[in-house]
Design a protein that fits this description.
Radius of gyration: 28 Å
Number of helices: 3
Structural class: mainly alpha
Largest sheet: 2 strands, antiparallel
Number of strands: 4
Shape: elongated
Number of domains: 1
Distance between the termini: 77 Å
Strand order of the largest sheet: 1-2
Order of helices and strands: EEHHHEE
Helix content: 25-40%
């Protein structure tokens, strides 16, 4: 009657549809009720995939300023993940800026250290020495 599915988190087989399938994940009932990072039990309104409560107005008030609700994570783990992602993005931006500065600081015209010829490419047009060796 019901097709057996495998929980993505714990690997347990289950057959009943869970609220996580609304978000495109297959999680058993036990995994929906716990934080995906630390395993702490979550209140019902915070379960992964939870999109409604008995009172929609109360839910909308509760969700304001609380993006972790319905994410399947507790507030601490969600905030830690956000901080980690921001740090990774900052490191990527810093690396891109350093690379751009290096490109800007590298002159297009250089003088050969051996024969003092002014060149544009990576090798001297007169003696053939490498730009990096000069």
């Amino acid at each position: 009657m019901f097709e057996k599915k495998t929980c993505e988190r714990c690997g347990k087989q289950y057959s009943m549809r869970t609220i996580s399938e609304n978000k495109g994940k297959h999680l058993c009932r036990d995994c929906v009720k716990t934080c995906s990072s630390c395993g702490k039990k979550l209140p019902m309104a915070h379960w992964f995939g939870q999109t409604f409560t008995a009172n929609a107005f109360a839910q909308s008030l509760e969700r304001q300023g609380k993006p972790w609700i319905g994410s399947g994570m507790c507030m601490e783990c969600y905030n830690n993940r956000i901080v980690q992602e921001e740090n990774e993005q900052r490191l990527i931006r810093e690396a891109q800026l350093a690379q751009a500065k290096e490109i800007l600081q590298t002159p297009t015209v250089w003088e050969c250290g051996y024969c003092k010829t002014v060149n544009k490419g990576n090798f001297c047009s007169n003696c053939g020495s490498s730009r990096k060796k000069s």
